[in-house]
Amino acid sequence: MDATIEEFGKLYPAYATLYFKDECEIVETAPKSDLDFRRLVVSGGEGYAFPRELAGDSVSFYSKAGCQEPMLLNSDGIFFAEVDGRKCLFVCELKSSFGVAQISHAKEQIVGTLLRLQAQLSILQSLPEWEYHGVIVSYEPTGSQLVVASKLTSRDASFSRYLCAKKHKLISSSIANKYYAPLALPDVNIHYVAVPDRQNEYLHRKPLYLH
């Protein structure tokens, strides 16, 4: 077990990680309708999943402190996996639409969740040397959504177009720290998974960490 994961369980026993092998499940616990995307299963690895409550329960402190977004935003799931010697933390957000606003908000949810988790990890003796990955999942964009995104000139639209075309985008700390100041964000590789045929459950067999 990674030393940081072990120490995390000792310090935060109520949020101890759960070991998984072969498959990790991320679930949307509050779908707005039966048509919403509900469940992502990532296969082909093993690691540790953090309880969903970990992200949500940490918001109250930052809310009382008067913090703004992204520190008040949550994601749908967090898990850790070690593959080929690479220690990777994944923060996942499930969306049912590829609208520019939804994809941008998903990115902010990932950033806020990651920053709060980093704060919780920072007091451990074995500081993690991990790669940080965000995963945004949505139904495949429709033609009209792509047309709308192509006509917009905002930073959010540019991010959405790039993510759709390349399936991943590195957010470097040097650039992010200017945008999110005074917060210190590590390098984060954001991945995009497009779910075909509007399946509300999807099994993803490709390793997310190869990009």
Q: Explain this structure to me?
A:
The protein is an alpha/beta fold and 211 residues long. The chain has one domain. Helix content is 33%, strand content 30%. It contains 7 helices and 8 strands; from the N terminus they run αββααββαβααβαββ. It has helices at residues 3-11, 53-57, 59-64, 100-121, 143-151, 155-166, 173-179, and strands spanning 18-27, 39-50, 77-83, 86-94, 131-139, 168-171, 188-195, 201-204. Strands 1, 2, 3, 4, 5, 6, 7 and 8 form an 8-stranded mixed beta sheet that branches. A hairpin with a 2-residue loop joins strand 3 (77-83) and strand 4 (86-94). Helix 4 crosses helix 6. The two termini are 24 Å apart.
Give a short overview:
The chain has about 210 residues and is α/β, with parallel strands linked by helices. The chain contains 7 helices and 8 strands, in the order H-E-E-H-H-E-E-H-E-H-H-E-H-E-E.
Average residue pLDDT:
91
Structural class, from secondary structure content?
A: alpha/beta
Helix content: 25-40%
Element order: H for helix, E for strand:
HEEHHEEHEHHEHEE
Q: How does the major sheet shape up?
A: 8 strands, mixed
What count of domains describes the coordinates? 1
Shape: globular
Question: How much β-strand is present in the residues?
Answer: 25-35%
Separation of the first and last Cα atoms: 24 Å
What is the CA-atom radius of gyration, in angstroms? 17 Å
Give the low-pLDDT segments: none
The total of beta strands comes to 8
Supply the number of helical segments.
Answer: 7
